[in-house]
Design a protein that fits this description.
The chain contains eight helices and seven strands. It is of the alpha/beta class. The chain has one domain: Spore Coat Polysaccharide Biosynthesis Protein SpsA, Chain A (Alpha-Beta Complex). β1, α1 and β2 form a beta-alpha-beta unit. The longest helix has 18 residues. It starts with 18 loop residues before the first strand and ends in a 19-residue tail after the last helix.
């Protein structure tokens, strides 16, 4: 039984859901091995998507026990995740857990994400700001994070505290939609993905998780990039409005006017 998930955790399933951890990685040779080993120790298989790294990220991940998908060029987190989602769907997995390769996410908290899937959510976000203190980030970055989270709340209608968190669990049928079409622009893999899931009527929830400081390297996110993303986000949502209306699933949550 993988990672302690039991039969019946996802409505309509007669067998334990198959869970796959997908780890997008770009030049994370120093940390990816420890991340992979920690996830495998919990009983979950791991796929590392090596996003065109110029170091030994792919080899280190493979040596630690992960399956490795090697992209020939760097396509960004969103593109790497879509590759991982497609792999999961093609190989019969029911749930994907996203986990960063830099060691900031705690694999021990994966069951917390999966409990949200068990409760009927299709997208579970591990929030750094829900009941577990303050995430250690600079003022500029925190301003940017608040900006995009506010926009995500406005466009999705979901009460969120951490729309930019990349520590998530995604279950079917949303997983299948993400495998076919997933935002690849800066922060699109987090914020825009939430908005698209909400527009499709999927159930979204947050659970409190902890995020540790990076041990190696620096984040590429900042207030300037986040501010520009807010502008792009508004345009993207307006242009894509209703795009997925024809792809609603029988498992979607009822919309407010249907309750």
């Amino acid at each position: 039984m993988t990672g302690g998930m039991t039969a019946g955790m996802t409505a309509g399933m007669t067998a334990p859901p198959r869970v796959l951890a997908v780890v997008p990685a770009y030049n994370e040779d120093a940390t990816v091995g420890d991340v992979v080993r920690a996830i495998i120790a919990l009983g979950y298989p791991v796929v590392v998507v090596d996003d065109g790294s110029s170091d030994w990220t792919g080899d280190t991940a493979a040596a630690a026990g992960a399956s490795v998908l090697r992209l020939p060029v760097n396509v960004g987190v969103g593109g790497a995740l879509r590759c991982g989602f497609r792999y999961a769907v093609d190989h019969g997995y029911d749930v994907v857990v996203q986990c960063d390769a830099d060691g900031q996410h705690r694999p021990a908290e994966i069951p917390t994400l999966l409990a949200g899937i068990a409760d009927g959510a299709h997208l579970v976000i591990g929030s750094r700001f829900a009941a577990r203190g303050v995430f250690p980030a600079g003022r500029a970055r925190r301003v940017g994070m608040r900006m995009v989270t506010g926009m995500a709340r406005r466009f999705s209608g979901v009460e969120l505290t951490d729309a930019t968190s990349g520590f998530r669990a995604v279950g079917k049928p949303l997983l299948e939609e993400f495998a076919a079409d997933y935002p690849s622009e800066f922060l699109g893999d987090t914020v825009e993905a939430v908005i698209l899931a909400a527009s499709g009527g999927y159930r979204i929830t947050e659970v409190p998780t902890t995020m540790d400081p990076r041990v190696v390297g620096v984040s590429r996110a900042g207030a300037a990039a986040s501010g520009w993303y807010v502008v792009r986000l508004v345009a993207a949502v307006l242009l894509r409005g209703g795009r997925r209306a024809s792809s609603r699933s029988a498992h979607r949550a009822p919309m407010p006017n249907e309750r």
